[in-house]
Automatic annotation (TrEMBL):
Domain of life assignment: Bacteria
Identification of the protein by name: Tetratricopeptide repeat protein
Cited InterPro entries: TPR-like_helical_dom_sf
Entries under SUPFAM superfamilies matching the protein: TPR-like (SSF48452)
Pfam family name, one: TPR_19
């Protein structure tokens, strides 16, 4: 009798030990899974920021195929496709994510961005209209401004550009876009001011520098503004000014600026030299 009690106790102990072991294994598995998720999140962040865009695309394509129920991986794939300059494919991924019902309002904004990059302005506007007005972000208002611009709804565009520029600590890009909008409307003074504002936030933004020259040249201001520029940039801006002057009929001014551009460039400035030669040939003929 005593022997059978001992056997029973031993068997019970074995079962309990087995159950404890299984519980312990389950906890270890959960812990490892949590670590893996953290590692994946860190890797995803790296891929979306400093990683090579095409490597990021390959990583997210593989990961999302292995984990089709993970919206974060689809999101990562779409963003990496944008970075790789493959906006049409990115738009398709965003559309799939939105159709799954797992998309956020930010996803819809990013989808609208991809549509704009593929020149699908009407679809982008439709997508932006589906986002609740309470979703107020810099990216949303920047896109709203661009859509309004495409429709030549200048009042709405100005309103959205102003809101967007006030919602970021780095407004140089949106101020440059706003300035270009003013440039297309032939509001050259307004454009000049916005390009100068953009350069106060990002003195190295060459697009804004070149646009600034166009806005000034349209007002027949052919002297270079006092802005930060390298010697190469100075030569390129002189070239832009020269071409604008010639286009407006100020040929002698343009010729002088072309010569100055050639002399200023630290290396041979082929584009300016060709323009100067072509101008001289036309005058001779």
């Amino acid at each position: 009798m005593r022997h059978s009690v001992i056997v029973t106790l031993c068997l019970t102990g074995t079962v309990l030990l087995g159950a404890c072991q299984k519980a312990s294994d389950a906890r270890v598995d959960r812990a490892l899974k949590s670590v893996n998720v953290i590692d994946e999140s860190n890797l995803s962040d790296i891929m979306l920021t400093v990683g090579d865009p095409n490597e990021a695309v390959a990583y997210f394509q593989k990961s999302s195929a292995e984990n089709p129920d993970r919206p974060d991986l689809k999101r990562g794939l779409a963003k990496s496709l944008i970075r790789a300059g493959r906006a049409e494919e990115a738009a398709q991924v965003w559309a799939t994510l939105i159709a799954s019902g797992e998309a956020t309002n930010d996803d819809r904004v990013d989808y609208a961005d991809a549509l704009i990059r593929t020149n699908n302005w009407q679809e982008a506007e439709v997508e932006l209209n589906r986002i609740p007005p309470t979703h107020e972000t810099y990216q949303r208002y920047r896109l709203e401004a661009m859509v309004a611009d495409s429709k030549k709804d200048w009042k709405k565009a100005d309103s959205f550009y102003e809101i967007a520029s006030g919602m970021t600590t780095k407004p140089a890009g949106v101020l440059n876009n706003w300035g270009f909008s003013k440039l297309t409307r032939q509001d050259f003074r307004g454009a000049e001011k916005l390009f100068l504002d953009a350069l106060t936030y990002d003195p190295g933004l060459f697009t804004a520098k070149n646009n600034l020259i166009l806005a000034r040249s349209a007002q027949r201001k052919y002297d270079l503004p006092v802005i930060q520029m390298t010697q190469t940039e100075r030569a390129e801006l002189l070239h832009t000014t020269a071409l604008a002057a010639i286009k407006q009929g100020d040929v002698n001014v343009g010729r002088g600026l072309l010569q100055e551009a050639v002399d200023t460039h630290p290396q041979h400035f082929d584009a300016a030299a060709r323009s100067l030669a072509a101008l001289d040939n036309n005058v001779t003929n």
